[in-house]
Design goal:
α1 packs parallel to α4. Helix content is 80%, strand content 0%. The protein has 132 residues and is mostly helical.
Length: 132
Amino acid sequence: MTHLPTELLLLGWSTVLLFTYIMIQGQTATRDRGLDWNAGSRDGEQKPLGEMAGRAERALKNFQETYPVFVALALGLAVTDRTGGLGAIGAWLWFGARIAYIPLYLFGIKYVRSLCWMASILGLLLMLICFL
């Protein structure tokens, strides 16, 4: 079996993380709006989301803002054979911060959540430095 660079390994695991964000958002929205809403066409005006479902939706949107950058950098590092070192550290930092981010957001932990977001951005910057 071929050894995968850290950046590509985390790219694979990041899809699991994306699905986790989506499932949390979907489950909390369904809890607030009901199973009929989830199974239906979702036409018309939607019942407002509660606190937890609203946070889950915003956390997912936040993840989706940085995810394409992570994917591009991970693939770019692998294609140019610049994996490892700062790039791998950055990938781990982004990945770990994104794991920590969702419970921090769901439970309303303000400043630590913001630090976590900044750590994920720092991870992307480290990957970018390695790529350029």
